[in-house]
């Protein structure tokens, strides 16, 4: 009897439709991976796909195209997963269901440091981009958190949102001020700012791996406490959660993920917002499950958008940052029309 009760209690904590959701996401992810390898300016046949995947000694044109697309696909999956988890963390930290990393000025802080690096330090490599972007994202997040924590009530969701919006507006003006007098900076920054996974290579992937591993580990470690935070700061404090430390630590994970992805692929929008929101509508508010499923969903959305950009822009391509806005905005509008928005 006791074993039966324990089993029932464990099942009661499992989100509804969790198993079906995981299976569906894995199937969609596999389809997106195959589509990313097959479709583009040139469609690859089954023989070329098999040669590119399993026969490294074959040097046909189709096999070489598949090998190039493997790198792009892996890079796209990593960026999408990082942005999805970052969105889940930022929404949990701010207790705002429509928040994404830009809510704390993370994207714009990274952009400002990158444009200053291009303008004043003549940087051009991914290794230089990533450290500047993360530094800018961290400094901005700390600044926003400090402003939002002022006052007797501490860092409330509303104060964090307002501080982030105001900081983003200021940083956006500074980015424009740095670019306008410098034509060469404007051209280089313009291509980076659109957002693209086409420039991904093995060096960028290797550079990305430590940041995505550390960021996701932080997300998984803080997930149980973030569930308590969703009940409110007073309740979370009563349960033994140090809300200030938790927010700083979770925000650090989000900054690492978003800052690294932004540095390597540009400021791609809507992934963190859309992926987390879709997952929450399907499985509920448990952050322990939202984080890994947001990683899968973000990877699916970004890879699918990249494939669409290649097909729509053939023989060239549309940058994925443009496609995520076109795909994400209508879906988000549809979701908000059918779901009642509420604070976490």
TrEMBL record:
GO terms for biological process: siderophore-iron import into cell. Belongs to the binding-protein-dependent transport system permease family. FecCD subfamily. It is a multi-pass membrane protein. One of its GO terms (molecular function) is transmembrane transporter activity. The chain crosses the membrane at residues 21-40, 70-90, 102-123, 129-148, 160-180, 207-229, 249-275, 287-308, 320-339. InterPro entries: ABC_BtuC-like, ABC_transptr_permease_BtuC. It is found in: Cell membrane. Its main location: membrane. Keywords: Cell membrane, Membrane, Transmembrane, Transmembrane helix, Transport. One of its GO terms (cellular component) is plasma membrane. This is Iron ABC transporter permease. The lineage of its organism: Bacteria, Bacillati, Bacillota, Bacilli, Bacillales. Gene3D superfamilies: ABC transporter involved in vitamin B12 uptake, BtuC.
